[in-house]
Amino acid sequence: MSFDFLSTANLLDVANVSHHVIQLIRQWSYSTSADDELAVRGDPTLTDRQIELIRHVVDSITEAEGKQLRDIPRDRADRYVTQLSKLLQDATRREMPTSDERGRKLLDELRASYPETRKRAA
Length: 122
Prior knowledge:
Oligomer: single chain
Number of strands: 0
């Protein structure tokens, strides 16, 4: 199962979609389809695009499994949670790149600003 359609979504969309689908899988997995729909539609923080992506993810999972979310075995559900978490991590790295060198430089600057921290760090 691949959620390639999320690989081009922006970080905010991936974060909201991942969060809501993981909630559906973990916390609402014993609900009815109507409850799932209400849980997604009832959140005013979601954009129309995010709701569309959530539905797409849920539809992809239920189609691949041939079952509703509530009927998917826990070990299989956990794999989807892991996959969605990785997609979120990838989106974060893509949109918020980090640099070890820059991090060390900032840490050195902070330590220089507060000499007492240099003693503790050594």
